[in-house]
Design a protein that fits this description.
Shape: globular
CATH class of the largest domain: Alpha Beta
Number of domains: 2
Strand content: 5-15%
Order of helices and strands: EHHHEEHEHEEHHHHHH
Strand order of the largest sheet: 2-3-1-4-5-6
Oligomer: single chain
Structural class: alpha+beta
Radius of gyration: 21 Å
Helix content: 55-70%
Largest sheet: 6 strands, mixed
């Protein structure tokens, strides 16, 4: 499930209000912006889903209108849709920097009640709303949260691309499933160190990670080694959970299809 809404909508509207004689013009702009956003969420999104084969048959719109959205569907389609939806909103708003989006994605077994999935997606959305700018340390929002990690949309897009690369490296046999799976543990250890829950084992995660790469990726595959070495910093290792989890889910599905 993917739940999302526009950030700081009140400020987006009130920033268009002027003073004195300008208030009439501002009110007109307010009404126009309201209509445009309502159209985007209630009509445009529906048309976008129907126009794309990969979404038409895999995504169900729970609700969409006003300034928020909730869709349910196949996990991989929903994760790709989240990025496409954000990009469509940016294009629709003509790149207006004041209109940003935060979203939360929850993955669950198909037997879990929808209300429980919705609660998990709402919790993820709240985490996205609390994202802070890494430079100013101020709340920035404009993010997405999934697999217990909150990232900016640019980082999320990069994560999906990295996931595809990881799958390709596994399929080629240049890196094993076991090595990629171990990255989940390294991501957890990097997070624990950042949050102060540090023990000796966790503080050594970086050197342990380098050792695992050196032992398991052949020197002749230099490009693959460099790709995985990029995740060797605390911030990137913690955020790698998105790309790694996505890749492992895809790899598992591929194995299940082969077994069938």
């Amino acid at each position: 499930m993917f739940k999302a809404d526009i950030d700081n909508l009140g400020l987006v509207f009130t920033s268009s209000w002027g003073e004195g004689d300008e208030s009439r013009i501002s009110f007109s702009r307010y009404a126009q912006l309201s209509r445009h956003l309502h159209y985007f969420f209630s009509a445009y999104v529906s048309g976008f889903i129907k126009a794309h084969d990969e979404y038409r048959d895999t995504i169900y719109t729970v609700f969409s209108g006003g300034d928020d959205l909730c869709v349910l569907g196949a996990w991989d389609a929903v994760m790709r849709f989240a990025l496409d939806f954000r990009n469509e909103l940016t294009t629709f708003a003509n790149g207006n920097p004041s209109i940003t989006l935060s979203g939360g994605i929850a993955l669950a077994d198909s037997k879990l009640p929808v209300r429980a999935i919705a609660a998990a997606a709402e919790e993820a959305l709240e985490h996205a709303k609390k994202r802070k700018d890494e430079t100013s340390n101020k709340v920035a929002k404009d993010a997405v949260s999934v697999f217990g990690v909150t990232v900016s949309w640019a980082e999320y897009e990069k994560s999906l691309k990295d996931a595809k690369a990881i799958v390709e490296h596994m399929d080629s046999g240049k890196v094993s499933y076991a090595v990629v799976y171990k990255m989940i543990d390294f991501a957890n250890r990097a997070r624990d160190v950042r949050e102060g829950r540090k023990i000796i084992r966790d503080s050594l995660w970086m050197s342990n990670y380098r050792y695992v790469l050196a032992r398991n990726i052949k020197q002749e595959h230099e490009n693959v080694l460099k790709f995985f070495q990029r995740f060797g910093s605390p911030d990137l290792m913690e955020k790698s959970r998105i790309a790694v989890s996505y890749a492992l889910y895809l790899n598992r599905e591929g194995k299940e299809e082969d077994d069938a």
